[in-house]
Description:
Elements: E1 3-8, E2 14-18, E3 35-38, E4 43-45, E5 51-53
Antiparallel strand pairs: 1-2, 1-3, 4-5
Amino acid sequence: xxxxxxxxxxxxxxxxxxxxxxxxxxxxxxxxxxxxxxxxxxxxxxxxxxxxxxxxxxxxxxxxxxxxxxxxxxxxx
Length: 77
């Protein structure tokens, strides 16, 4: 079940919403459905069972810390 981040276009409230299937999110403050989806920083499991967030500027496809276009999934081990 994905969690999405939004900004309400009516009241500018920033929030996260857990969205199931075809359900649509609504603002918890004013209940508007006019929302702007936001880019999220995702969490990934690192070796050793710790959780780390993707560094700023990392590749959006694979999280490679060298940045966009540097995808080399085999080098991340």
